[in-house]
């Protein structure tokens, strides 16, 4: 059985993945390590790569794109992984933020927060392409009338999200990447 | 005097737990309700048992049936292994308490250690139900075990500890050492509001559990240990910007006020107007620079109200205390405090099916490996590497 270690930018990603992943993959064990923001992640993840002494471990780094250039972020992380002798580490970027993935599945946000008709925003031209929403966290708070809570809502979304029908490209690329490692 | 191992059976949430390789400074983490305070209370229980008797010690905690672990009948057992000094023999104190006809009784009380490096440990004190034997020439003994003199003794009642009587006599050095440790054991669970209160004039050398006699101890330190008092002030000034001086003032009504002098103002502030963090830092300095150190000091959550960066220095001070004074046990929830301590110092408590287990960070190969790569205890704790410790 493969063991996956997720190096994450913050608690909300952990809350999502801990509930979502067991629904998608039954034949893995995994551990989520939340850092305190992206500078903590970038500055300290190498210690985990080097010190994590459990055999058959694959690492996955997930961070938000925010306003940075996706390729620059990726190359920078990649370099550090190679230096730490873990070149096969999977690096994935949530474009722009974790909340973009929730815009890709507004039906689940609707259920979790018990707001009717939230999903009609997915045809709104401002939100139709989740990965190009500029400030998804702020926008999600706005359309949910501040009901969205980063950690607790992420946990509940993870429990029910239809991962086969998410319109966020970066979410699908993340899941495909995991499938490649696992299967 | 250093405790090396603590074994607990059937005491509240500790149905069967062992803490081994206990360091000089022992830092304990665990979710609320995981048993940190209960662990400290073992020493309180032993102290109550020694100064009074086990019936009183149990009654204070709700009686035998409340104290014994759920779904067990007992006996309640403690086994503490300690050394008087670095190279002396490892001494074991064992106590088993049961219930008979609804009365708590001491089923067994043993003090034993090995003579030299070979052979079985020898029972220097062995009592059961108020009767037993004690070796009377322990101190002078050099040669053969056969030369040891045992004396039959009967205690006044079946709920009195044998060490209570023997700890007073010089011919029982092991009992005396252990008795001293239990007697001078101290727990600090500092409450800011208690420390702000005005006290009637009196005398106090040691800071009390909740710190309510801070003004009196300040007076004592100022009058009797002026040099120590000045070094406390120096440290305080460096950590709390603006503080120039601290003193205690006797009022006309005969009460003692604690006052803090801010360099920017002419008149000092009364303690009740000073920030929580300032009082707490001052109180810890008073506790740690006590000229008569406690052989065993337990501190509950020192981080509350303190600015995170001060915790590193505070951790260093506890370490220093444990090097020059006694052993220190500290419970904490603070990642900043944990970041300042070593792998060897940290234990964590986790509840499994209702009962507490004690884990040692050093025994976890993953944690140890990450620390070798430069990670820190506080980060690892927060990131969930102390298995089972985070509240769900």
Give the radius of gyration of chain A.
Answer: 16 Å
Number of folding domains of chain A? 2
Let me know the average pLDDT of chain A.
95
Q: Given the helix and strand composition of chain A, which structural class is it?
A: alpha/beta
| Helix share, percent of chain B | 25-40%
Secondary structure tally: strands of chain B: 18
Global morphology of chain A:
globular
- List the strand order in the largest sheet of chain B: 2-1-4-5-6-7-8-9
Largest sheet of chain A: 4 strands, parallel
The CATH class of the largest domain in chain B is Alpha Beta
- Oligomer state equals heterodimer
- Biggest sheet descriptor of chain B: 8 strands, antiparallel
> Total number of helical segments of chain A?
8
Structural topology:
The complex is a heterodimer of chains A (183) and B (392).
Chain A: E1 2-8, H1 11-24, E2 28-34, H2 38-51, E3 57-64, H3 70-83, E4 90-94, H4 98-103, H5 106-113, H6 136-143, H7 150-160, H8 169-182
Parallel strand pairs in A: 1-2, 1-3, 3-4
Helix pairs in contact in A: 1-7, 5-7
Chain B: E1 2-11, E2 14-19, E3 25-29, H1 36-51, H2 54-60, H3 64-67, E4 76-83, E5 90-100, E6 103-113, E7 122-128, E8 131-135, E9 150-154, H4 162-166, H5 173-184, E10 186-188, H6 192-196, E11 199-200, H7 214-224, H8 226-239, E12 243-250, E13 255-262, E14 269-270, H9 276-288, E15 296-300, H10 310-324, E16 327-331, H11 335-339, E17 346-352, E18 355-360, H12 365-372, H13 377-382
Parallel strand pairs in B: 3-16, 3-17, 10-15, 15-16
Antiparallel strand pairs in B: 1-2, 1-4, 4-5, 5-6, 6-7, 7-8, 8-9, 11-13, 12-13, 13-14, 17-18
Summarize the structure in words.
The complex is a heterodimer of chains A (183) and B (392). By secondary structure, chain A is of the alpha/beta class. Chain A has two domains: 111 residues; 62 residues, no CATH class. Helix content of chain A is 49%, strand content 15%. Chain A is built from eight helices and four strands; from the N terminus they run βαβαβαβααααα. In chain A, strands 2-1-3-4 form a four-stranded parallel sheet, with helices on both faces. Chain A is globular and about 50 Å long. Chain B is an alpha+beta fold. Chain B folds into two domains: 168 residues, Rossmann fold (3-Layer(aba) Sandwich), CATH 3.40.50; 155 residues, P-loop containing nucleotide triphosphate hydrolases (Rossmann fold). Helices cover 31% and strands 29% of the residues of chain B. Chain B contains 13 helices and 18 strands. In chain B, the strands form three sheets. In chain B, strands 2-1-4-5-6-7-8-9 form an eight-stranded antiparallel sheet, with helices on one face. In chain B, β4 and β5 form a beta hairpin. The longest helix of chain B is centred in the N-terminal third of the chain and has 16 residues. Chain B is globular, with a radius of gyration of 23 Å. The model of chain B has no long low-confidence stretch (mean pLDDT 89). The interface between A and B is medium-sized, with 13 and 12 residues.
């Amino acid at each position: 059985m493969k063991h996956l270690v997720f190096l994450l930018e913050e608690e909300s990603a952990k809350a999502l993945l801990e509930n979502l992943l067991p629904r998608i993959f039954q034949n893995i064990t995994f551990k989520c390590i939340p850092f305190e923001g992206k500078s903590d992640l970038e500055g300290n993840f190498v210690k985990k790569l080097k010190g994590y002494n459990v055999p058959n471990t694959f690492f996955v780094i997930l961070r938000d794109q925010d306003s940075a250039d996706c390729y620059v972020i990726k190359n920078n992380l990649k370099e550090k992984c190679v230096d730490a002798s873990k070149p096969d580490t999977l690096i994935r970027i949530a474009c722009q933020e974790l909340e973009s993935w929730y815009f890709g599945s507004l039906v689940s946000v609707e259920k979790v927060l018990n707001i009717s008709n939230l999903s009609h925003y997915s045809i709104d031209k401002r939100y139709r392409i989740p990965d190009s929403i500029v400030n998804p966290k702020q926008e999600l708070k706005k359309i949910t009338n501040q009901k969205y809570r980063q950690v607790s809502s992420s946990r509940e979304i993870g429990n029910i999200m239809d991962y086969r029908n998410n319109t966020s490209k970066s979410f699908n690329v993340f899941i495909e990447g995991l499938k490649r490692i696992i299967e | 005097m250093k405790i090396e191992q603590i074994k607990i059976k059937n005491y509240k949430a500790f149905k069967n737990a062992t803490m081994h390789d206990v360091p000089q400074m022992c830092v304990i983490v665990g979710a609320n309700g995981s048993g940190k305070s209960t662990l400290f209370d073992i020493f309180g229980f032993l102290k109550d048992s020694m100064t009074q008797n086990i019936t009183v010690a149990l009654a204070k905690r709700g009686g035998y049936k409340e104290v014994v672990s759920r779904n067990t009948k007992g006996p309640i057992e403690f086994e503490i292994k300690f050394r008087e000094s670095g190279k002396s023999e490892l001494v074991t104190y064992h106590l088993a308490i049961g219930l008979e006809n609804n009365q708590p009784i001491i089923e067994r009380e043993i003090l034993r250690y090995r003579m030299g490096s070979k052979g079985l440990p020898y029972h220097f004190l062995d009592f059961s139900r108020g009767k037993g034997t004690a070796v009377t020439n322990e101190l002078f003994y050099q040669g053969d075990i056969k030369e040891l003199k045992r004396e039959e003794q009967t205690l006044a009642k079946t709920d009195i500890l044998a060490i209570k009587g023997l700890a007073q006599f010089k011919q029982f050095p092991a009992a005396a050492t252990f008795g001293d440790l239990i007697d001078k054991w101290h727990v600090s669970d500092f409450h800011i509001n208690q420390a702000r209160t005005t006290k009637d004039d009196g005398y106090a050398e040691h800071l009390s559990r909740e710190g309510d006699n801070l003004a009196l101890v300040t007076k004592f330190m100022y009058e009797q240990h002026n040099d120590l008092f000045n070094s406390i002030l120096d440290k305080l000034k460096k950590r709390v910007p603006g503080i120039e001086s601290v003193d205690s003032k006797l009022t006309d009504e005969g009460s003692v006020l604690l006052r803090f002098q801010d360099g920017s103002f002419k008149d000092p502030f009364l303690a009740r107007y000073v920030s929580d963090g300032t009082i707490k830092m001052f109180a810890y300095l008073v506790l740690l620079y006590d000229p008569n150190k406690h052989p065993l000091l337990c501190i509950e959550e020192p981080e509350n109200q303190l600015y995170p960066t001060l915790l590193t220095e505070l951790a260093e001070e506890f370490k220093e205390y444990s090097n020059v004074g006694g052993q220190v046990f500290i419970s904490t929830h603070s990642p900043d405090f944990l970041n300042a301590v070593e792998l060897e110092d940290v234990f964590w408590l986790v509840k499994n099916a209702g009962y507490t287990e004690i884990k040692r960070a050093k025994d976890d190969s993953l944690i140890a490996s990450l620390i070798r790569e430069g990670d820190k205890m506080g980060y690892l704790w927060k990131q969930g590497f102390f298995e089972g410790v985070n509240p769900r």
